[in-house]
């Protein structure tokens, strides 16, 4: 049971990183970014291309690929998202959905539908003795890296002036504007940051999971459920829900395999029946 729970924490590490980016983007822009899974996929492919074409090792890719995707997210927000934000939210919904399909098809055209191999870094090979069981070193690193990044984001959001402005703009944008803070100037870097988080998760996933054009599409539906469970626009709720959903689904897959594909959605329905705004969402936003 403990080993399955640890498996769930590792899966939850990816959910938490992706949900964190989605929550920040939705909270500040009100945009349901359906291309988030595609950026996750591009992170994994970015690491693969960097190694295959330029001989770039995993550690350098872990830094450069998210940065490049973050810059791409900034350009995307300035050229398209910003122009569509004043319109009906459906426009950005459809735009990001179409963008996800375009990115997936471009990668399919170049690399096909077969998975591309990406080796684990030699420094993280083997296993670690965790006392009651041994566990692959790389998976332990993934969990630690996710906790470190989420923890660093938490410190920035709660202990710095910039972080407090971003958090206020994310969770209470109208009140923040009323206090004289220009929320619009923070939109572009926050969107880029959310995209960079997806890219970071993709690079982490490359040595663990199959690098293929549909890897983001298979994951993003679960991540949206995680964001809903945590509470739309709640940064901390999304992270906590990400790890919790990972553990619950891993244990459910082990004990109730018949529900393996639907357990997260059953959990989401149960949470919404109890709290329509999600575990950490604001009830007044739904009144």
Describe this entry's structure for a reader:
This protein is mostly helical. It has a single domain, classed as ABC transporter involved in vitamin B12 uptake, BtuC (Orthogonal Bundle), CATH 1.10.3470. The protein contains 11 helices and 2 strands; from the N terminus they run ααααββααααααα. Strand 1 and strand 2 form a beta hairpin. Helix 1 packs parallel to helix 5 and helix 1 packs antiparallel against helix 8. The protein is globular and about 55 Å long.
Helix content: over 70%
Mean of pLDDT: 88
Q: Give the ordered list of helices and strands.
A: HHHHEEHHHHHHH
| Contiguous helical run count | 11
Low-confidence stretches: none
- Kindly give the count of domains: 1
Distance linking N and C termini: 41 Å
In short:
Helix content is 72%, strand content 2%. It is an all-alpha fold and 287 residues long.
Pick out its properties.
globular, two-stranded antiparallel ribbon, mainly alpha, 2 strands, ABC transporter involved in vitamin B12 uptake, BtuC, 287 residues
Mind sketching the topology for me?
Elements: H1 2-29, H2 36-54, H3 58-84, H4 89-111, E1 127-129, E2 134-136, H5 137-159, H6 161-171, H7 173-178, H8 184-205, H9 215-230, H10 235-255, H11 263-274
């Amino acid at each position: 049971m403990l080993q399955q729970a640890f498996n769930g924490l590792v899966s939850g590490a990816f959910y938490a990183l992706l949900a964190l980016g989605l929550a920040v983007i939705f909270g500040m822009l009100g945009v349901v970014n359906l291309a988030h899974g595609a950026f996750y996929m591009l992170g994994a492919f970015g690491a693969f291309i960097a190694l295959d074409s330029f001989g770039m090792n995993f550690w350098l890719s872990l830094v450069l690929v998210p940065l490049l995707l973050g810059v791409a997210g900034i350009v995307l927000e300035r050229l398209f998202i910003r122009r569509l934000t004043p319109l009906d939210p459906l426009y950005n919904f459809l735009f990001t959905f179409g963008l996800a399909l375009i990115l997936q098809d471009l990668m399919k055209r170049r690399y096909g539908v077969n998975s591309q191999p990406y080796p684990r870094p030699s420094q993280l090979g083997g296993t670690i003795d965790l006392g009651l069981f041994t566990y692959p070193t790389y998976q332990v690193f993934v969990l630690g890296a996710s906790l470190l990044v989420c923890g660093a984001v938490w410190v920035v959001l709660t202990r710095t002036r910039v972080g407090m402005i971003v958090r206020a703009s994310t969770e209470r944008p109208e009140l923040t504007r009323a206090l004289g803070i220009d929320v619009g100037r923070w939109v572009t870097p926050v969107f880029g940051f959310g995209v960079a988080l997806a890219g970071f998760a993709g690079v982490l996933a490359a040595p663990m999971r199959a690098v293929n054009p549909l890897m983001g599409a298979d994951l993003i539906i679960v991540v949206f459920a995680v964001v809903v469970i945590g509470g739309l626009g709640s940064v901390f709720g999304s992270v906590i829900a990400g790890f919790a959903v990972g553990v619950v689904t891993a244990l459910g897959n082990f004990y109730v395999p018949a529900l393996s594909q639907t357990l997260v959605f059953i959990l989401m329905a149960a949470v919404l029946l109890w709290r329509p705004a999600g575990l950490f969402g604001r009830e007044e936003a739904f009144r």
